Protein: MTH538 TIR-like domain
Organism: Enhydrobacter aerosaccus
Amino acid sequence: MARNVFFSFDYDDVMAVNIVRNSDVVRAANVKRPFSDRSLYEAAKNTPGAIKRAIDSAVDGTSVTVVVTGEHTWRSYWVRYEIAKSLERGNGFIVVDIDGVGPPPTPNRGPNPLDSMMLAPSYDRTGFAIMEWDGSKYVDYKLLGYASNATAKYPGRFLTGGAYALSQRFPLRQHWRLLQMYFPSTIEQAARDAGWNPSS
């Protein structure tokens, strides 16, 4: 059974993202997204809470979040929320670089968005605080500040030691040109690394 996968990206990169999203290897997966095109996204922006509700619904039932990354993805307000909701869910993560993908002008390579989010285990190891980079330091992430590991169910190693950038526990990062050759197996690896059972 295919895993449910959530795609997170900056809408400025939508042309390149659609090449990834519409590829045969991705179409074979059960991909969930809050918006099928930019027009729905723009309409939702005019409704208070609509984007959050759409993201919440789309992340629900997934086990892996694929962060499709261009130059400015790391600072996207909604990408950070999607990452936080994915943490609350207990998802695994894959960062997919798309620099040079798609019609001109193609996206440039950008920083890893998982470097800009931090997980801080609670003292009793029953949950974790979520933090974000504000340009000079990590601060509490106000939209979703704490998650219970009773829900996330991350393995014990995720809740040991001090706070850490997400990229330290979710190191899978690859350019799309290489990743497309083994996308399904990488999805499975990301899910298992996060504690999900095979094909769950």
In short: The first helix runs from residue 14 to 21. The longest strand covers residues 127-133. The chain has a mean pLDDT of 89. The domain at 4-110+170-193 is CATH 3.40.50.450 (Rossmann fold).
